[in-house]
Amino acid sequence: MLQNTDDCRSDDLEIDLFLEGIYRKYGYDFRQYSRASLKRRIFGQVDRFGADNVCSLLHKILYDQQVFVSVLEYMTINVTEMFRDPLFYKTFREKVVPVLKSFPSVKIWHAGCSTGEEVYSMCVLLKEEGLYDRCQIYATDIDKNVLEKAKKGIFPVESVKHYSDNYNKAGGHFTLSKYYTARYDGVIMDSSLKKNIVFADHDLATDQVFGEMQVILCRNVLIYFNRGLQNRVFNLFTESLDHHGFLCLGSKESLRFAECNDSYEEFDRAQKVYHKNIS
Amino acid sequence: MFKNWSIRYKVMLIAFVAITGFIVYLTSNIYVALDTDSSLGEIQNENFPVLGIINESSITLNFVKQSLADAVSTGEIESVESARELYDEIFKELDRMKELSPSVAEEAVRLQGLLTTYFDASSRVATGMMDDSLAPEEMMALFPKINSSFADLETGFNEFRKIQTDSFSSALLDTITKSEAAWQRGVMLAAGLIALLFAISYIITKTLTNGLNHAVKVADQIAEGDWQVDIDVNSTDEIGHLLSAISTMRDRLKERTDEDHRKERIQSQVAELNEQMRGDLTLIELCRKVLDYLTPTLNCQIAAVYLYDSDEEQATMVGSYAFKNRKGVTNAFKLGESLVGQAALERKQIRVSELPEDYIEISSGLGESSPRHVFVTPITHEDELKALIEFGSVHPISEEHMDFLNSIIGSIAVAINSAQSRVKLGEMLTTTQQQAKEMEKQQEKLKVVNESLEIQATELTQSQEVLQAQQEELRASNEELEEQAQALKASEESLQAQQEELRVTNEELAEQAKMLEKQKSGMEEQNQALEQAKVVLQEKTEDLEVSSKYKSEFLSTMSHELRTPLNSILILSNNLASNKKENLDEKQIEHCEVIHSAGSDLLSLINDILDLSKVEEGKLQLVLEDLPTEIIRRNIQLNFEHVAKERSLDFGVIIEEGLPETIRTDRQRLEQILKNLLSNAFKFTDNGGVYLEVTRPPEDMSLEGFENLDRDKSIALTVRDTGVGIPKDKQQLIFEAFQQADGTTSRKYGGTGLGLTISRELAKLLKGDLRLHKATEGEGSQFTLIIPDFVEDESAEFLDAVHAASETGEITRSSEPVEQAATNEPLAAVIQSKNHVLIIDDDEDFATLLKDLAVEHGLEATICLDGETGLENAKKDLPSAIILDIGLPGIDGFDVMEQLQLDESTKTIPVHFLSGSDNESKARSMGAFDFIKKPINQDQVTASFDKIQDALHKDVNRLLVVEDNEVAQQAIMAMFEEREIEVELAISGSDALDKIKKMSFDCMILDLDLPDMKGFELLELINTSDDYTPVPVIVYTAKDLMRDEEAALRKYADRIILKTDQSSERLLNEASLFLHWLGNRDTEAPVKSLEAIDHRDDIFEGKSVLVVDDDMRNIYSLSAILEERGFDIDVASNGIEALAALEEKPDYDLVLMDIMMPEMDGYEAMTEIRKQKRFADKPIIALTAKAMKGDKQKCIDAGANDYITKPIETDKLIALIRVWLQQ
């Protein structure tokens, strides 16, 4: 859709106001998310609610919490699968786990865990490597609904075949079915996998460090943030990470342009695993 | 000798003499003076005072006397006293005199005696006279005494006085004489002394001055230059010294002057020689010149000079002075040869004197002589021997000349050297000149070469420039490259950003794809359903067609068949009624009329039915014409005027202003509708009026749903009456076929009840609508027909009755139940109880778990503990889902299921079985509990254990044996000894229950015959009571079990299996999936998870925290932070208090536990807290000051969920709390 620059600016202004309104009313800070995709989604929301424009949607949001709840669900994209990018998990298993085994206890933080596929994948991996009992896992996301789903650990049965493929490619020792129960249209992950997981609501844009981690995974979350927010998040991670801690990013993400780049060295370049330097 | 004294002593002599004389003089004077002094002193000190004393005393004596006399005369005692005083005074004076002059002491004493005598007597007399104490005789005796003593005294005094005076004056005279003599003596002495002095000083002075003058004279002469002056040293005193010094000085001066002269001479000679040697002389010339000069200067007569060649080590004569070459005497000497060579070798001067006569000859023109002395001197320059010179002379060479020579040698050497150098230079010059010539030639060559080089140089410069330019280009391109590199980096960044965006887009797309997939599958389902429906529809349509065909055939036939006899009836009855024959009575006529009327009714009914069916079939065709509204009015009026009149009702047709003059519609049908309405109106109105109003559709008439009815382009024809009206609950019914508002109205008002139905259909035909606008019971009704002004001329379509539009708000049709296609999956049925799950399970605990699960999924849940209640509930509430346990008391799960299926209302509710897995059903069938027949046998038990292990995936480690018979006990125990299984014995049911309460067992071997209760009862108890954890059981018994007993046991067995940990989990998981599936079917999302979302930060509001810390400051600061955010805070200062606080209020949302505390520390406290089951999940965050990894782990091990290190960062704490608060 062709717009002249004046319209674009007005659009941006509307979006700014929209995001500011959400932040002030509900405390969710989307102001520094990557603008282009956020815009698309917001416009999508406008259509979905039949509002005339972004401002009228904002009006609805401010006065009707249910509308906000509904909108919130669509503000973040939750595309995820178990053992997504199986090579990453394979690399993690083969290279990172041996290092982790030398720690007496391991704290792992999945930042932006969405519906939890990644978290459960990691738990399966850790269980198979005999590391699970030593681990305390924090799974955080900004969206409470999504956290609820993650807590349940129920995934659609159609996806399981694909997940199993991924699991095998990621070097799984057994079969994924060992870890879930299937019935009706869903599979539910074993509760033994949930034992050491803490699900919590945490906003990377506004919240602070809450503990010392040995591993932080933040995959395909940062792509939604603008450069400034990315830096903030990186700094947060750098502060949270222990010496010799690991930071894992998504396959299309990179630390190279971050301010804190110097604090890390590439542990595995292809899979975007970084190792925090002593400094 | 005197002369040789030093001047000092001489002068001192004078002084000495002077002083001595003076001293003598002085001494004598002093002596004299002293003498005089003492004499005078004596006088003064002795004589004079004595004299004085005497005088005074004599006077005083007189006074005494006087006083005493006074006393007598006056009789005053005081006078006596004063006399006494005076007496004392005299006495004292006399004492004094004694002291002063011991020589008169004797006299003094005598006087004193006299005095005393006198006074005593006198005073006595005096006193006696005064007081008459004295006898006159005494007095008489005393008087003479007094007088005598007094006279003596006086005399004494006088004499004394005289003596003294004499001595005094004689002494004085003496003194005077003495001093005079002394004075004369002194004068003489002084004079002599002066003379002496005078003489001495004169002598001395003379001596001194003589000597000095002489010295002066001598000095002057010396200064003049007279060295010969005579110096007379005739004394050894200072003057003598002076003179000798002058003499020495003179000598020295002389010497020096001589020396100077000599040196001068030498200098001038040297200068002369130098002068000679100056200039560019050849070596030979130089040597000659030197020789020529030196020889006479040195007072030699003959000389030769040799040049030394260092290469050949040979000295060769090059010049001579007055020398005649003698044959046989060589002119060249090697080192060491002859004196010359020797001198050359030693580099020393050699002098030889006393030469023999024929050594050499000095000859002049006038004579000859032989030199007596020869002298050779080497001449060296900078350690190089240059030459030697030999001198021969008659006289020895003087020192002076030697000096001169030595001083000149250096110059000569230099000169020789210079000359040699010059020679060399000359040679070199020639060489150089030659070389120069050669060089010139070469230079020519070089020039040529140079030129070529220059050319090359220029070429080089050019290429340098080119290089420069290239360098700059290179630099420029370097910079460009750098720019590009930066640009590349920037574009890399943006590429990264794009990649990220791309990823985002990808994910969006993926999400959308997923959604589309969902939609697609949804749509596919819908499609399938549609397909099915279509098929069904198709069939039905076909059926319909067939039936409608039949219907129309039937109708047409029937209409004909019906009408024919009906006609006959009508005609004939009419005929009869008219009674033309007049043979009928009234009653009979009435009968005929009735028959006729009935027939008419029947006919009109048939007509109506036919009409209706035609209309419904769509067989009616519209006949459109332009109908003037006036015509409508006229026709209506004509038709109903008389009816109105007959019924005495008001009637009117009102046409509103502004309506079009004509409307295009089907007149016949329009009139039919209006007639129907009006006749109805008239039928049901007893009084009042009926009106037809033609207007534009009023505002309160909704046209929704009728797209072709435009408010401005349609007209409303309203039939308003003031009749009986229509009760509300019948308002819908009236349009139904064959329905009237009141089933009885037909009796009263006639009519078949089809009219409105047909009218409605006709209205639709006319592209309009017929509706009951208003109707109030008792007041009247308003029916309105709305039609468009203009109806299109096309074959009329109308809606299928089956799919009558149910969207119009005013007419509703009852929804028909949708028939289900037969499928195995329970489909969506009547969902009147949305989001409600029914749980049928006798295990209350498990059921509660299921209920929690349901709540998590946003559903409400009800629990029923047995099958019957469950069924009742299901039928009543019609929940959206049922979770059903198999093992129920009373009817079991299967039975419940059957019942549910049988009941229409419940058969479609989805049911989830809490069933065992396949393995377990197998195990069940084999018996996870088992039967063993007595006597018990090890193999059987082993087999049973294996079965249990298989079924439950658990090893048997601890076993409870319930057996009362001792022998049997022993036997069983023996069986397990080797197997490392812990065995507990119970001897009765209650004993067993006790043990089960206290410990957990993996298996129980149960004898059914127990003393206190039957085995069944025990099992029942265990199963139903919460205090006992169900245990897998091996039952053994002696007897055969009855059927029902077996069944009971089996049931129990099921429950055990189902209720072990693993299987409950599995069951819960499956139940969870069921509920999830349930939720997915329902398009409305469950509301629960979307609880009121306040501001994100408000989750802390109202949450309660227990802060445990012994340090008040920490508590204070923590409280401040937390309260600010809305927490309710309670405080404990050690572990014990913390536990107490938790007892009091078990539902804290969070506990913050410090580690270092007195009495009970954090570790202990947390361990204690976690021991209690109810606090197993309570979020506890430890506040530890220790930062070592081990300590942190200790916190976790002690039971903390997480920890934060001190000093506490507020943000971190809040973030951590937020995380754990949500668990």
Using the CA coordinates, give the radius of gyration of chain A. 20 Å
Q: Report the major sheet of chain B.
A: 6 strands, antiparallel
Task: Average the pLDDT over all residues of chain A and give the rounded result.
Answer: 87
Shape call of chain B: elongated
- Most extensive interface between two protein chains, with residue counts: A-B, 62 and 57 residues
Share of β-strand residues of chain A:
15-25%
**What is the makeup of the main sheet of chain A?**
7 strands, mixed
Radius of gyration of chain B: 90 Å
Give me the number of helical elements of chain A.
10
What's the arrangement of strands in the largest beta sheet of chain A? Answer: 6-2-1-7-8-10-9
Structure notes:
The complex is a heterodimer of chains A (279) and B (1223). Chain A has 279 residues and is of the alpha/beta class. Chain A has 10 helices and 10 strands. The mean pLDDT of chain A is 87. In chain B, 59% of the residues lie in helices and 13% in strands. At the A-B interface, helix 2, helix 4, strand 2, helix 7 and strand 4 of A face helix 8, helix 23, helix 27 and helix 28 of B.
Question: In a few lines, what is going on in this structure?
Answer:
In chain A, 44% of the residues lie in helices and 19% in strands. By secondary structure, chain A is α/β, with parallel strands linked by helices. The model of chain B is unreliable at 795-832, 917-928, 1056-1060 and 1085-1091 (pLDDT under 50).
